[in-house]
Amino acid sequence: MIVALNRVLNNLYTDLSTDFVDNQAATTPSEIDTMSHIADTPSPPYYAVIFTSLRSTEADGYDSTAQRMLELAAAQPGFLGVESAGEDGGITVSYWQSLAAIKSWKQQDEHLQAQRAGKETWYSDYKTRIALVERDYGLANGGQT
Questions:
Q1: Under-50 pLDDT residues of the chain
Q2: Rounded to whole angstroms, how far apart are CA atoms 35 and 142?
Q3: Which of the four, 84, 95, 106, 138, has the lowest number of CB atoms within 10 Å?
């Protein structure tokens, strides 16, 4: 789950080259299972939004909001994928093409409502970090850097 984009994910959308956009596989909500896969991101650079949270004891509406945020995020221009781990204390990393795409997502109306609910109800603490990914590697590319 995407701890509401990150299950309530908590900044300037620039146009990318036509080649980059044309070469990206579309990501739909049904293709995103944040608990059982590693996001298929493009070659760097791109951005990561790292959302770390501690849940409160209140859970009413959390799961449905988290699912809705995942669906909305996946439909946002510039969204590249998401990975998540944990339950009561969790970490979710969403990947974005640009700071503008992140800012646009943060200001999306339903996401703003979910952020408020997270602050008021679902989280005892959280922190959001935004980082530029300059390099990535793993088994899929033979461990090459």
A1: 1-31, 34
A2: 23
A3: 138
